[in-house]
Amino acid sequence: MMRAVVCESWRPFEELELKEVPAPAMRPGAVRIRIEAVGVSFATQLVVQGKYQRQPPRPFSPGTEIAGTVIEAAPGVDIAPGTRVFAVLDWGGMAEEAVADAIHVVPLPDELPLDAAVSMPISYPTAGASLLWRTDVTEGDWVLVHGAAGGVGLAGVEIAKAMGARVIARAGAAKHALLRDRGADVVLDSAEPFRDAVMQATGGQGCMAVLDVLGGDDFDPSLRCLREGGTLVTIGYAGGHIPTVPANILLLKNIAVAGLNWGAYVGWSPGDNRQLYARRVRALWGQLVEWWQQGKLRPEVHARFPLAQFREAMAEVAARRSVGRVVLKPQE
């Protein structure tokens, strides 16, 4: 038996319960992980209410980003018990143990901390795939990052700098010091209009890429911040509504809008293509871990909570107080 946060029927996150449940069954091609940290994400609130595009079979434990230690491996899996790892799950992370597909389990070098590694299964590869796979950013180009103090936004700032780009980061004023520390060349207040400031910072040239986790009212002026050949990558709609694209501006400015759904690469979309994309996904994780070892990435943990305080952890995320990630510690 193990402790787990359990969703038995669609309900608000704060109405979930901490229970003793059987440990998940082992399966072929998988490993069992003793979970030391699990990421708390805004989207989990939608998942447990049945409002997300994926609906796990109930009852289930939410949580998809974990870090911990392998305690069992299926026959033929070459990840030995005792290996420190991070992993992406379909669900089941807010628990003391989880079973994960070996293709989605990545060994973690000893010098890198486990709790910060919860940013690696989803947040960092979402930003990384957006910039490396969807744009033509090269050294010296300008990149605008919205929501730059959040989990994906902060990853975007660091990855753009690792690529040699110049970064304009937008966030609340209280979070500006951290963004400057992470290398942002220009930091803008997210409460203020930004188009003129971006064009001034880039010498009127505009940006080669915009990383947009917000959507909403920021979408149209973001398009107007792109230079010729630039791309806006849409990866979320925390700004309140899903925008529509004025197609004429794409034609007139020779710009593009691209989407990035990391879940499609790890088996969360209809058709489940996790095996098809496994090699590409693991190559990106390898690049991110290498940059982390080199000090180019510094995943930020804003706050840590024991498993029993899962409601308090989500409240920190929902109130948008966090800089970087909030994690639960299931062994505490």
Total domain units: 2
Find the structural class using helix and strand composition. Answer: alpha/beta
The residue ranges in which pLDDT falls below 50 over 5 or more consecutive positions are none
Helix content: 10-25%
Structure summary, number of beta strands:
15
Q: How confident is the prediction overall: mean pLDDT?
A: 96
How does the major sheet shape up?
Answer: 7 strands, mixed
CATH class of the largest domain: Alpha Beta
From the coordinates shown, what is the CATH architecture of the largest domain? Alpha-Beta Complex
Order of helices and strands: EEEHEEEEHEHEHEHEHEHEHEHE
Q: What value does the Rg take, in angstroms? A: 20 Å
Q: How far is the first residue's CA from the last residue's CA?
A: 16 Å
Query: Judging from the principal axes of the Cα atoms, what is the shape?
Result: globular
Provide the CATH superfamily of the largest domain.
Medium-chain alcohol dehydrogenases, catalytic domain
Q: What is the fold-level CATH name, i.e. the topology of the largest domain?
A: Quinone Oxidoreductase, Chain A, domain 1
Question: Secondary-structure map with pairings?
Answer:
Blueprint: E1 2-6, E2 17-21, E3 30-40, H1 44-47, E4 65-73, E5 84-88, E6 97-101, E7 105-107, H2 123-134, E8 142-145, H3 151-162, E9 166-171, H4 176-181, E10 186-189, H5 195-201, E11 207-212, H6 219-223, E12 226-234, H7 247-253, E13 256-259, H8 274-293, E14 301-306, H9 310-318, E15 325-329
Parallel strand pairs: 8-9, 8-11, 9-10, 11-12, 12-13, 14-15
Antiparallel strand pairs: 1-2, 3-4, 3-6, 3-15, 4-5, 5-7
